[in-house]
Amino acid sequence: MTNTSNSTYVKQASYGKTMVKFMKKDVCPETKIHTVYEMDIQSMLSGELDESYTKADNTIVVPTDTQKNTIYVFAKNNDVSVLEVFAAKLAKHFVDRYQHIHGAAVDITLTPWARMNVQGKPHNHSFIRDPSETRKTHVAFTEGKGFDVVSSLKDVLVLKSTGSAFNKFHKCEFTTLPEVDDRIFSTSIDCNYTFNQFSTIDELSSYDFNYTYTSAKEITLDTFALDDSASVQATMYKMADQIINKFPAVAEVFYGLPNKHYFEINLTPFDIDNHGDKCSLYQPQAYPSGYITCTVARK
Q1: Domain co-membership, 160 together with 268
Q2: Catalytic residue ranges
Q3: Of all helices (H) and strands (E), which one includes residue 34?
Q4: CATH value at residue 238
């Protein structure tokens, strides 16, 4: 049945394929050293698609299965070692290939496999799953406008057992939290960094995204470890500020840091002092959890 409504319209429409997974093996011809890349990809297309919804016109629908196959072919024929560049090439292909498609967004999640150390040295073709981080990117290409890129470091669970305080905070009749000069600071790092728009694929391809990722991770972990933290807010601002000042191509940085609480266990019923600087035994507190976010942008 054709939709003939005069009272509604398609405000936004996009569609695509999600959870397209593959592992690619690269072998260096000289050294015979293997490198593996396991990826989870989503592609989303937008453009002149209204009538596929309002008039059931499938002639303008590029099947999601076609998108899946395109991802596989591009993965076989292209270097995938830089997520952002691979995603950009895919997005641009979809827009260039189909006249009625004017925008494409590609999201990639990299599964981290670290090279295994065997008998004291890195093994040529054996790997161990590294659960300590997740690397992602989101690349959107819009016809006539260029590439918008947001990359991220996620799921990095960190803890330090001193060097963090929280005091002199606002208090009211509902405040029960005591001030602390020394506490355990633990969080799962979620960091997104947004680049200035890239005008062309050549400009984007020449940028060193892998170095930016490695440096953003290093700045994040170094600051977490070394900062004499007055609060999660103060520490996360220092992280973002350093990334923006180091990389002119980065326009803004987002952090989301949930507070993984560890509270003192009360041992006073047993005449044991486990409070303040005498505390060495803590109770992990799964919930409720503090959640602090901040987006720092270039002026």
Answers
A1: yes
A2: 17, 64, 261
A3: strand 34-47
A4: 3.10.270.10
Residue with tokens 């020394």: 182
Long-range pairs for 2-5: beta carbons < 8 A, 24 or more residues apart? 2/54, 2/55, 2/56, 3/53, 3/54, 3/55, 3/56
Phi, psi at 69, each rounded to 5° = -65, -35
Helix, strand or coil, per DSSP, at residue 278:
helix
Does the reported pTM lie above 0.70?
Answer: yes
On whether both 41 and 126 belong to a single domain, the answer is: yes
Assigned domain for 280 exists: yes
- Domain containing 43: what range? 11-144
Q: What Rg do the C-alpha atoms of the chain give, in angstroms?
A: 24
CB 164 within 8 A of CB 229: yes
From the number of C-beta atoms within 10 Å of its C-beta (0-12, 13-18, 19+), residue 234 rates as exposed
Q: How many CB atoms lie within 10 A of CB 130?
A: 12
Highest mean pLDDT among 167-176, 205-214, 277-286: 205-214
DSSP H helices, the chain, are: 50-54, 64-77, 83-97, 201-205, 209-226, 232-246
Q: Which residues define the annotated binding site for O2?
A: 64, 259
What is the C-alpha to C-alpha distance for residues 260 and 85, in angstroms, rounded to an integer? 35
Do 161 and 299 share a structural domain? yes
Domain boundary among 109, 144, 179: 144
pLDDT tens profile 174-233: 998 888 888 999 999 999 999 999 999 999 999 999 999 999 999 999 999 999 999 999
Sheet with 291-297, edge to edge strand ranges? 15-27, 34-47, 101-111, 134-142, 146-160, 185-195, 250-258, 291-297
Known binding positions? 64-65, 166, 183, 232-233, 259
In whole angstroms, what is the distance from residue 33 CA to residue 39 CA?
20
Give the span between the Cα atoms of 155 and 163, in whole angstroms.
22
What residue numbers does the annotated binding site for urate cover? 64-65, 166, 183, 232-233, 259
